[in-house]
Amino acid sequence: MQALTRRSFICGSAAVAALTAMPAVAATGVKTLKNGNTVIDLVANKTLSNVGGLLELSIKKYGKVAVVRTSKSVKGFSVINLACPHAGVLVSKSSDGWSCNPPGHGSVFALNGALKVGPATSALRSIKFTATSKALTIN
């Protein structure tokens, strides 16, 4: 067994604190299939009907993720992992996207996960998905 490092403890504590401070968003019509894919019923989740709408959820395979409506097209979504690629800390929703708050290092990301301000050197990790007019499937 590995010893718990100071960084691991701080990052873990921050993640727990962030999750307990965020109000729960009721996601309805979300199913995990036997093959591990997650299916989101778009009709049941009205927040995703408008551009800029988002849904945060936890998926065993990826951890905390966000589904963001980026355009009105059938495939107009981004699915992103909410762990900062630089510090590993969960990012928080901000007025114009996502921010990596302390103990993170202040990186800022657009709503679709694109990097706006470092020290991170890459965008939030994209997750593959397929979409129809009725459902979005996270692979």
List the helices and strands and how they pair.
Blueprint: H1 6-21, E1 30-32, E2 38-41, E3 54-59, E4 63-69, E5 77-81, E6 92-94, E7 97-99, E8 108-110, E9 115-117, E10 129-131, E11 135-138
Antiparallel strand pairs: 1-2, 2-11, 3-4, 4-5, 6-7, 7-8, 8-9, 10-11
Provide a descriptive summary of the structure in words.
- Helices cover 12% and strands 32% of the residues.
- With 139 residues, the chain is mainly beta.
- Strand 1 and strand 2 (38-41) form a beta hairpin.
- The longest helix has 16 residues, at 6-21.
Task: Please outline what is shown here.
With 139 residues, the protein is mostly beta strands. It is built from 1 helix and 11 strands, in the order H-E-E-E-E-E-E-E-E-E-E-E. Strand 7 (97-99) and strand 8 (108-110) form a beta hairpin.
List keywords for this structure.
mainly beta, four-stranded antiparallel beta sheet, 11 strands, globular
**What's the main sheet like?**
4 strands, antiparallel
Q: Let me know the average pLDDT.
A: 82
Distance between the termini: 32 Å
The number of E-state strands comes to 11
H/E order of the elements?
HEEEEEEEEEEE
Rg of Cα set: 15 Å
Which blocks of ≥5 consecutive residues have pLDDT under 50? 11-25
Question: What is the general shape?
Answer: globular
In spatial order, strands of the major sheet run 1-2-11-10
Structural class computed from helices and strand pairing: mainly beta
Helix percent reads 10-25%
- Percent of residues in beta strands? 25-35%
Specify the number of helices: 1
